[in-house]
Each structure stands twice: as structure tokens, then as C-alpha cells.
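Sequence only, no structure available. Ideas?
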Amino acid sequence: PIAPFRITDNLYYVGSQDLASYLVVTPKGNILINANLASSPPQIRASVEKLGFHWGDTKILLNSQAHYDHIGGAAEVVRETHAKNMVMDGDVSVVETGARTDFLWPSPSILAYAPVHVDRVLHDGDTVSLGDVTLTAHKTAGHTRGCTTWTMRSHLPGEQAGTMRIIVIVGGAGFWSEYHFVTTSGHPASYPNIAQDFQHTFSELRALPCDVFLGAHGAYFDMLAKLKRYPQTGPRVFIDPAGYQEFVGQAQETFAKALSKQEAAAAR
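Reply:
I predicted one. C-alpha cells follow.
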């Protein structure tokens, strides 16, 4: 657990030390991004209530990706709050089967979780609106087939009235040794066009304007280090467009090296 904190006027962190969960507060109810592990909903709920908000006001559940550490708690969140569960098209069957249609299944890296019905299927560029807030869903596939990066605009406490910041919540851009980007004699590609999906993701992420850099894991945006400066700096500590571009660049470089290595092996 970690103490919840405010990021912008209407955006709060309610996750754990690394598994990020965000609460977007609106006059018409609230949006939760990421239910995290199957064991996480009590922790997330406690954080929401510690901030003074009502768990039952959660109207929409969004996610970053269909892996167990980001959506494993979704069934419980939906059961408790009756929130509408909205998922990017490439991840819908994975969510509704509790991970059993994940392209890496069966794998020790892919843990099953309680299946949960998807109320709205999202597509690249779709918007999710509630009250006075609109989030945009960017399909940044590869890590999962429906991995989603969320963007929104919001005002930071203490900044000049009318100053709106662009928030980017990165869904994920990494991979494990089990991911196969090309077909070799020993393995087919993990799924058709996975390499193209990753390449599209990096192009998409590089093109996104970003003021406030956030992500599905706190480690993506160096959260714990930034929180040490939070008492002095406040939410402005999360304004980090350079850190965002550095994260994307490093992820792209790591992918390019792995792809080249796999292509060389396939050519032998």
C-alpha cells in the first residue's frame, strides 16, 4: 500500500507502490483506471475512501492492459460498484475468459483471474466521457493486443486558472523472452503482426504531446522518487515531458534490439 495522493484537480492516485490505479472524479460519478490484482480492490477502495470519495460512485472501469496485475480485480470492482467495464478491442476476449485467450497462454507469466463481462468495446481513438471529463483511448498494442494508453486534459492545483495540462497514462511497451516477433523454425510469431503493433505503438507514443507523465506501473514514471519531492513541489513534480520521451525511447530501443536478434536467428 501507499498513501493516495492528488495529481490534478480531478485526478488521484489510488494504487499501490508500483501497480498504478487512478481515480478520475467528475460531478456525475467517478472513473477508475485499473483494478490491479485480484487482491487489490480492498486497497484501492480504502484509498478512494481515504480521499473522501465514495466507492459506490465509481461509474466506469477502464484499464491499461488485460494482464492479471492490472485487471485481476475487475470482477470484484464491477460487482461492488456496478461500474461499466470498458475494454480495448484486442483485449476483450482475454478479459471475458479470465486470461485464457491471451496469446501467451498457457504460460507461467500469464495468471488466470475471474472473467468479467465487457460492457463497451473500445477502439483506437475512442473517447470516454463522464460529467465534465473526457478521456481518449489510444491503442498501443504489443504488450497485449489491446494495451491502452489513456490521455486527458486537466488543471494542476496551484497553477494559473485556465492552464490545462495534457496527462498521458502509458499502458505498457515492454515484453518478456516469451514474446516472438518473427516466425522461426522453433516458434511462430506470438500473434500475427505483433512486430508491426509494437512499431505502431512507439510511433503513437512519440507523437503524443505530454505534460504529466504517468503509467500503469509507478516504475514507468519514477513515481517513488518523485513522491519524495512531492511535499515541496506538489503535483507539479509529475510534469515530465522529457522523462516521457526518454521512457518511450528506451522502450523502443530495447524492442529494436530484440527484433533484430530474432530476425537474425530466423534468417539462419
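The mean pLDDT is 97.
Hope that gets you unstuck.
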